Amino acid sequence: MQPNGRLMSLAEVTSPSASPVDDETVYAFSSASSSASVDQRTRGVERLIWVYCSPPIFVLGIIGNVLTVLVTARRPTRSTSSGVYLLCMSSAAIGVYLFGFLAQWLRAGDFVDVTELGPWSCRFNKFLYYSCGDVAIWALSLLNVDRLVAVCLPLRKADVCTKRRAVVCSVVVIIVSVAKNLHLFWTKGTVYVDSSSDRVISHCGAPEPHTRFEKFVRPWIVFAFVTALPVVVIIACNTLIIRRLARPGDRIQHARGGGRKKKKKTTTMTTMMCLGASLSFIFFSAPSIILVILTPYYPGSPYDIAKAVNNLLVYVNYAANFFLYCLGGRAFRSHLRRLLLCRGRAHFQRRRTTNSSSSGRYTRSGKQELIGGTTLKSYRSNSSSSTGLSNL
Fold it and tell me: What are the φ and ψ backbone dihedral angles of 374, each rounded to 5 degrees?
């Protein structure tokens, strides 16, 4: 500080002609300059990640989850328990993209910060974002339990894996998620420089006396009920399902013909869809919640970059689910193809019937059974007269 009260620049402090100053002053100036430079570089990297890497993920995620909702809302998928859970999970994922992804992208691109428009804007945004995320995670956990019962307890499947039970469980998950996040309406708000000042630091902070709860208590609650417990449920269910599917007895039973084989194959395909979505969640989403816990203990630039990368991985998880459904579920691909071609179930049944009739295979299209355009009765009589066989 010069005698006239003007702050000295770093160049003036370190120049030979400057008046003697102590080492602490030089260190303070150099530290401030270095910190500002690091923060600026971190801001640039974070902006690069969000503004340029996130739009493809957003587009794929929205389109994929909308298509999943449209597919699972059609017959016969919507009448199954797994269809209800997929519908609930995909609808919640759309909410995550709209209230979480879009808000972060707008803030990173310096367009508008939705959470800083006012305290109520912050509260509603965080409430909807966190609630949709909780519903999506627990809908996936319920889907794993549903598949566990279908694979490991097939005799109980008709009683447990019902549409009505799935709807009830989904409604309970929604109610619990909403109740868990209601505290945001009074723990989030405007933070001032001090109690006697009108200068606002943030409209989306944690004012006293809720500062400690938001920084040190809520992250552990989120970790326990939104990460640790669902991960334990998912890993336990997947382990039991894989062990069941790997049993030699199941492969022998699967090799036997009849309607049981087709039903078993459908159950296996749905289970593989569930396994893919579960592994995707564990790989992409779990690290982000761990970072929330580390926020108060490791502030700074490296954490900000890691947070940006992990948040993108969470959204990659919701975008990847659609492609996992397409890879793991033949029935899902079939319903998706009908949806994209704007053709209903009756069209594909007529097409299958026409193909079967023209190729000379047995069909059930009406009272008269046709094989290659000839009635089955006349075909049998011709065959009997020529070969002496009474039956086909």
Answer: -110, 140
Tens-digit pLDDT profile for residues 176-224:
999 999 999 999 998 988 777 778 888 898 888 888 898 888 888 888 8
Q: How confident is the model at residue 250 (pLDDT cuts 50, 70, 90)?
A: low
Residues 291, 303 contacting (CB under 8 angstroms): yes
pTM of the model: 0.74
CB 293 within 8 A of CB 223: yes
Closest CA to 2 of 23, 24, 36, 25: 25
Q: Nearest CA to 66 among 84, 48, 45, 90?
A: 90
Dihedral, CA of residue 82, residue 86, residue 87 and residue 93, to nearest 10: 160
Q: What is the signed CA dihedral for 146, 132, 307, 184, rounded to 10 degrees?
A: -130
What residues pair up with 371 in beta bridges, in sequence order? 374
Q: Is 83's pLDDT higher than 70?
A: yes
CA 52 vs. chain centroid, Å, equals 21
Q: Is the dihedral of CA 80, 82, 88, 94 positive or negative?
A: negative
Three-state SS sequence of 300-359: CHHHHHHHHHHHHHHHHHHHHHHHHHHHHCHHHHHHHHHHHCCCCHHHHHHHHHHHHHHC
* Strand 370-371 with 200-205, pairing: unpaired
Integer CA distances (angstroms), 332 to 145, 154, 177, 242, 326, in order: 20, 22, 28, 21, 6
Q: Are 326 and 333 in contact (CB under 8 A)?
A: yes
C-alpha pair distances (Å), 373 with each of 5, 370, 385, 391:
104, 6, 19, 19
Distance CA 14, CA 277 (A): 59
> Which pLDDT band holds residue 23 (cuts at 50, 70, 90)?
very low
Q: Does residue 287 surpass a pLDDT of 90?
A: no
Q: Residue 116 class from Cβ within 10 Å (0-12 exposed, 13-18 middle, 19+ buried)?
A: middle
Which range, of 50-54, 101-105, 194-198, averages the lowest pLDDT?
194-198
Rounded alpha-carbon distances, angstroms, from residue 187 to 59, 208, 289, 293 = 33, 9, 19, 18
